[in-house]
Design brief:
The protein has 154 residues and is mainly β. The protein contains one helix and eight strands; from the N terminus they run H-E-E-E-E-E-E-E-E. Strands 1-2-3-4-5-6-7-8 form an eight-stranded antiparallel barrel. A hairpin with a 4-residue loop joins strand 6 and strand 7. It is elongated.
Length: 154
């Protein structure tokens, strides 16, 4: 009986300290992003501590026009008082036009970050996303991108 009471108490304490992640979040991710700068970012809840994130980045400069779509599966863990940390993995595809050089590329990516969930429907995050690209003419190296995310939760 004592074990059952202890188990119920621990389950209740865990439930009270666990923070739910939003069903949907839409916003921007601003950073280096391998020369792409800003990305439109969408997060979709899957289950208690898991979500998908999709980011669409584009670049339109004098020398290069490109876009990149990245999808990540993320594990979200609560820290305390509105803070969560998360880790994820995924991949993406893109296309580029750099004058005489144009084509497509693929990439694999990881994700590690921290976020704060405000009392209002705003989520702010800071993450690091290493990406390994596969294309000799555009994205064939390991990039370590750091970005700030601002998302509206709904």
């Amino acid at each position: 009986m004592k074990k059952l009471i202890l188990l119920v108490f621990l389950a209740g304490a865990t439930t009270l300290s666990a923070q739910s992640i939003s069903k949907n979040a839409l916003g921007v991710r601003l950073g280096d992003n391998d020369g792409f700068g800003g990305e439109i970012s969408y997060q979709r809840y899957l289950k208690e501590n898991n979500r998908l994130e999709f980011d669409l980045g584009w670049r339109d400069s004098n020398n290069v026009e490109a876009f990149k779509l990245v999808g990540l599966y993320q594990w979200v863990m609560p820290i305390d008082g509105g803070f969560n940390w998360y880790v994820g993995a995924g991949g993406g595809i893109g296309s580029f036009d750099a004058g005489e050089n144009d084509g497509t590329f693929a990439l694999v990516a990881g994700d590690l970050g921290i976020e704060y969930n405000f009392e209002i429907p705003l989520l702010i995050s800071l993450d690091m996303r290493p990406e390994l690209g596969f294309n000799d003419n555009y994205s064939d190296d390991l990039d370590l991108d750091i970005a700030l995310g601002l998302r509206y939760q709904f």
